[in-house]
UniProtKB/TrEMBL annotation, chains A, B:
InterPro entries: 6-PGluconate_DH-like_C_sf, NAD(P)-bd_dom_sf, PDH_C, PDH_N, Preph/Arog_dehydrog, Prephen_DH. Keywords: Amino-acid biosynthesis, Aromatic amino acid biosynthesis, NAD, Oxidoreductase, Tyrosine biosynthesis. It catalyses: prephenate + NAD(+) = 3-(4-hydroxyphenyl)pyruvate + CO2 + NADH. The keyword Chaperone does not apply. Pathway: Amino-acid biosynthesis; L-tyrosine biosynthesis; (4-hydroxyphenyl)pyruvate from prephenate (NAD(+) route): step 1/1. This is prephenate dehydrogenase. Its EC number is 1.3.1.12. Belongs to the prephenate/arogenate dehydrogenase family. The lineage of its organism: Bacteria, Pseudomonadati, Pseudomonadota, Alphaproteobacteria, Sphingomonadales. Residues 5-293 form the Prephenate/arogenate dehydrogenase domain. The keyword NAD applies. Pfam families: PDH_C (PF20463), PDH_N (PF02153). One of its GO terms (molecular function) is prephenate dehydrogenase (NAD+) activity. It comes from Sphingorhabdus pulchriflava. One of its GO terms (biological process) is tyrosine biosynthetic process.
Length: 301, 301
């Protein structure tokens, strides 16, 4: 039983093209129509062949869709939804893959007041962007969080859950506000910090950029990996999950100030106690399959 | 031509045991004597067989050494040097692998006023600890920074350089103070930040630890990897490179405050400009072989 016969994917970058490839790999009978606002991306998607059809407008892409998934930066969701509003079938489910859920829910509801909207967020990705970067196993063993509004039809939520499970994901249902808080600490703040420290290093006068690059194996290189993620996508995340990000940032800053003070006054016991505690969280992440235990610092031997 | 016929390794954890394994792999004729203050580690080293001899005291470990390498936390260097002082051959070179170089140089000079001391720092590692964690290729293609005092004999510097090159490392000579500044930004600050954010996440009331772990694939898991590094080693690094770490931390905090302000006031252009700039540094790190280009976020597919 296929949850949808025809899926439209709007936005064919890393995530959109991975969804398309994962559908092809796991539900080959499903027809996929893709669209991207960038004509070069459309051409590339056509050449790569992960869609059955590549449409020239968002409207034509959704004409006979059972499920429409918006895979664009969260700041662009409302505009894209408006562009396809006139052509959207009345029984289609509209979903997305954005990293903030309250703002996306509001934008989609405003643009598509009659539609069945079930926002979603597959917690998976890499630091690469574009249609060449996607791959069919990106969602395997990862969590996909659905944040259906309270009045969402149960059958629609069930169908979307089945869809993501067929792509290899585990599905969790969550309140949109809580999602935004959880992701602020597990994803948004780590990215913000990685971007910041790479910028700080770039601005130093006494240490040359060439030195920063040469000796990056001491830890810095892992931050540069995260800080290579798509700039527009991340700009939109911070602007659209402002409240939760600022809250987490404030807590982080307080904790950093406490550590700064421990270093200044030579409080070794305080430092060691924190450093020992953080090991336990790492152990749980490895045990639950959310990362590899290989000693790697991001590097293959 | 072997740079040294007999090498003593004091401290048999990740780095010490990797040095031993790398010597065995690349210079099998060199005799290795190992010592560790922990009797369990000595027993394990004996079983693993990466040393020719495992001594019961630091003194007996160095009796006929041409090169002694201290692979202990930087706060323990002075004590270990005192313990072996009486048995150290007059012509032996004493070196180390610590992540701070000014404090180690001072501690070793105080404990061994007559010895030829050439501090060194191989910029390589993983988040694992202990004698089982080491491997022979850890230093391959990584930089080893030597910080010889101005009066160090040229021949001794040359011999130590050859030793590290034979283990696969590229050698750089640097002033100890400059080393400490470079490593503060490329290694010490990244570790401090990673430890902090993992601690912040652990303290949250609204988001459970189980949620932090489940959704860690969004970026957080890479921080937990770094924050799983040895607590005592890192405590000592921060206490012994206090000045440079506090300086870099101050700059980082200012930059983070600027980003916080950009988010609060919705300055998307400022965010995007920084996020685009940090991509270039990543590109250089990959080009220079200091990290793998595979899109991974620390995870194997």
């Amino acid at each position: 039983m296929l949850p949808f016969a025809r899926v439209s994917i709007i936005g064919l970058g890393l995530i959109g093209s991975s969804v398309a490839r994962a559908v092809k790999a796991n539900m080959p009978e499903v027809r996929i129509t893709g669209f991207d606002a960038d004509p070069e991306v459309r051409d590339r998607a056509h050449d790569l062949g992960f869609c059955d059809d590549v449409a020239d407008t968002a409207g034509t892409a959704v004409i006979d869709a059972g499920l429409v998934i918006l895979c664009v930066p969260v700041g662009a969701m409302g505009l894209v939804a408006e562009q396809m509003a006139a052509d959207l079938p009345a029984d289609a489910i509209v979903s997305d893959v954005g990293s903030c859920k309250q703002s996306v829910a509001e934008a989609l509801a405003a643009a598509l007041p009659e539609a069945t909207i079930i926002p979603a967020h597959p917690v998976a990705g890499t630091e690469k962007s574009g249609p060449d970067a996607g791959f069919a196993t990106l969602f395997k063993g990862r969590w996909c969080i659905l944040t259906p509004p309270t009045n969402a039809p149960e059958a629609a939520v069930a169908a979307l859950s089945t869809f993501w499970q067929r792509l290899g994901a585990d599905v969790e249902i969550m309140d949109a506000r809580h999602h935004d808080l959880v992701l602020a600490i597990t994803s948004h703040l780590p990215h913000l910090i990685a971007y910041t420290i790479v910028g700080t290093a770039d601005d130093l006068g006494e240490v040359t950029q060439s030195e920063v690059i040469k000796y990056s194996a001491g830890g810095f290189r892992d931050f540069t990996r995260i800080a290579a993620s798509d700039p527009v996508m991340w700009r939109d995340v911070f602007l659209n999950n402002k409240e939760a990000v600022l809250e987490m940032l404030q807590r982080f800053s307080e904790d950093l100030t406490a550590l700064q003070r421990a270093i200044r006054y030579g409080k070794g016991d305080d430092l060691e106690a924190l450093f020992a505690r953080t090991r336990d969280i790492r152990r749980s992440i490895v045990e639950q399959g959310q990362d590899d235990d290989a000693p790697d610092f991001g590097r293959k031997h």
